[in-house]
Each structure stands twice: as C-alpha cells, then as structure tokens.
Amino acid sequence: MELTSFVMDTLNSISQGVNKSLDGLSHHEVIWRPGPQSNSIGHILFHMGRFEDTIIQARIQGKPEIWETEKWYTRLNLPADSSGHAYTVETLAAFPVPELSKLLAYLAAARVKTSDYMKNIRPAELDRIISLPRMGDRPVSALIGRLLMHAAEHAGEIAYVRGIQRGLGK
Predict the structure, then answer these.
(1) Domain containing 144 — which CATH number?
(2) pLDDT at residue number 169
(3) What is the pLDDT of residue 45?
(4) Of 19, 62, 73, 74, which is closest to residue 41 (Cα–Cα)?
(5) How many other CB atoms sit within 10 Å of the CB of residue 125?
C-alpha cells in the first residue's frame, strides 16, 4: 500500500467512526460538556477541523488556511482568530458551538485539501523539515503521523462523550 492510500484510508476510517458517534445526536448533545473544564463534541469537531486545516495548509504547505481563504469563520459565525486550541476554561465556556452540519462541512472541506495534498506528495517531501513554534523541527512525515494520531484521539473522545450521554450502543 502506498503512503497516500494509507493516510487517506486511515483518515476516512476515523471519519466513519466519528459519524457513527454523531448519528442521531441533538444540538443539545453536541454542545453538552461533561464538566466545566471539558470540551463539548462540537468544540472537539471544531478543533479537529482547525488542526487539520492548519497542519496541512499552513504548516506543511505554507499556504493560507481555508479558514481564511474560504471564510469558514463567517460560515461558522466565529471570530476570524478562533484557533480551536489553548482555550481557557472561560473561553471554552463561552464558545458558541456552530450547527453540526456546518462543522461537518468545514471538516469535509479541510479533508479535501488534505486529499489534494496527499495525491501529489513525493517521497522526498516526507523528509523535509518544518520548524514549528511549539513542536520544534519535525519532518513532514512526523506531522502527517501527528495528524492521524490527533484525529484518532479526538474520535475516541467524541465516542466517549456520546457514551456518557446515552450509554453503550444508544
């Protein structure tokens, strides 16, 4: 199996799991937080989209994020500087979770850009070093691996929060 197929198959499998966890949820369930220092499913989805957009577009390719170029902040009715990470308890409590359909549309748009990038990746690109403010110097391959790990971690969180709300298999 080629790298592109592996990465996209893994991301698509993770997305299928997320969609299964989201099936039938009300808006109230999407915005519900297990505790004052916990994320809602909606915020986790937002964070996942922002992370994928930032890693693939800005960090790896050095391009503007679709958050900016396609004005996703307007579509989601959020401030343009919404990063999706490093929120304080207060910021998280005040976060206005967008409608699920709009969050999923942003995730899908980010995934299209990921797929476009992966279709054209060359083996030498995987070794290219990128300097990141919080992570230091990392090869592109490590950032792609981080994207996969990140998506899987948050898919598990979403499934867990749904389980807290509804119980097993409900």
Answers:
(1) 1.20.120.450
(2) 72
(3) 98
(4) 19
(5) 15
